[in-house]
Amino acid sequence: MKKIFIPSVLSLALLLSSCYGFGATGTGAAVGGVLGSIIGHSSHNWYGSQVGGLIGTIAGAAVGSAIDRSEAESQYEKISKQNQEMRQRQQAAAQQRQEYAYSPVELDEFRFIDEDNSQTIEVGESCKIVFDVVNNSDQTMRNVEPILEVVDGTKGVLIGEGKVIDELQAHERVTYNLPIRVTRYKAGGISFKAYAKDGNGAYTAPIDFTLEVKK
Asked: Is the pTM of the predicted complex or chain greater than 0.90?
């Protein structure tokens, strides 16, 4: 009887599949094909070898495919769990943002003051934006920081550094001002956005306005 060295063939097939990245399905097909060919060849018939290889390949591929499906289902369950955890974190963060969407602090009564009272910004002129900061709640608000920004990213606008209001008592109103200076002309004026952030990390509703610029 002719000896068949199946362990060596299995090792070779597995080595080839790992080297060429066949995966579980490719590995099963490779191993099944080799074993089928050997069994068919044992009949001393070339046709039997080919048929045996084909049958072995199909059977091996089926086994390998089952392994692939198992691995895919495992990965799917892992990814689904991660996605669910991420959604839960996002929902919790969204709920927290909704609870603190707007601060009870309000910015009100905006005024523009310039050196010659022309109510327009002249290039090089020192001006300031004045407004009231109001606490509309029944509690003391701490570390309130008014912020003034240029909306459209215009260059040549200098805004003085504001100071944090340490404490703003319930229903208290304080006057706040921020110095500004424009170093270059911009047709159509400059658009600003003003808002404030309180110590709880909440923001006030933004106030948008535009100031005309003169050369």
From this structure: no
Which range of residues forms the domain containing residue 20? 6-98
Residue 82: exposed, middle, or buried by beta-carbon count in 10 A (0-12, 13-18, 19+)? Answer: exposed
Report pLDDT digits (tens) over 124-133.
999 999 999 9
Of 27, 18, 116, the C-alpha closest to 67 is 27
CA 192 to CA 211: how far, in whole Å?
A: 8
Are residues 90 and 167 located together in one domain of the fold? no
Give the total number of structural domains in the chain: 2
Tokens found for residue 146 = 């008014």
Q: Are residues 109 and 83 in the same domain?
A: no
Give the list of residues 6+ apart from residue 100 with CB closer than 8 angstroms, or none. Answer: 200, 201, 202
Q: Are residues 88 and 117 in the same domain?
A: no
> pLDDT (tens digit, 9 = 90+) per residue, 178-200?
999 999 998 889 999 999 999 99
In a domain, 31, yes or no: yes
